[in-house]
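Thread amino acids onto this structure.
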């Protein structure tokens, strides 16, 4: 893991806002649900990695405190970001459901 690249939570297509869609002639198409599932699996992977590092630190198997704390903080930040994205999605859904057509 190195610095900021290890904190990547959302897939690259969500970072740029461009998306991962290719026209009718292309073959690759990724939807909103796939992007969310990918982001949630990244958060889950960071949390399990942090759990493994903390466990090995507590067992005394040579894990240093610094890398364990970095992994825990990265997992925490990614979870907080995921929760904020979820809150925005819920708010958007509630706003759309209040609209009258």
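Threaded sequence (101 positions):
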């Amino acid at each position: 893991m190195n610095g900021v690249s290890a904190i990547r939570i959302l897939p690259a297509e969500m970072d740029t806002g461009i998306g991962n869609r290719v026209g009718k002639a292309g073959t690759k198409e990724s939807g909103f649900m796939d992007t969310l599932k990918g982001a949630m699996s990244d958060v889950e992977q960071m949390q399990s990695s942090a759990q493994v590092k903390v466990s090995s630190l507590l067992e005394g198997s040579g894990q240093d405190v610094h890398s364990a704390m970095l992994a825990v903080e990265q997992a925490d930040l990614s979870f907080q970001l995921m929760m904020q994205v979820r809150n925005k999605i819920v708010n958007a859904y509630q706003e759309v459901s209040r609209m009258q057509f």
